[in-house]
Design brief:
Length: about 130
Amino acid sequence: MSDPSIASVAEPRREERTWALVAHLGGPAGLLLSAGLFGFAVPLVVWLARRDDSPFAGEHAKEALNFQLTLFFLHLAAWVFVLFTLGLGLLVVLPFFFVLWFFELILGIVAALKANAGERYRYPLTLRMIG
């Protein structure tokens, strides 16, 4: 006997999963192509375009956008550090950038796989600026 108080949650459609996947993989692609500056562009576009039509794709795009904005601010802070140290901070910042890029690539792939499977995903250590 099933409990009527528990609403059944429909599995997201293929199109919704595809948009969610694009939001997660668009971040690493944008970040790698723009040297850390515009990884948030694709998740932002997907979130603005799909948030009203698809709650599943909208939630994934919002999560990807928050993660990309967090990375953007980390890159910005690192460049400010380089400027204040008159370039000497680059010795510290370059390895930091590689760690960020690796972290983003791995987590972006994990999130995309979860989205494609119809599951929810939350990035760790992410500032949730877009609520």
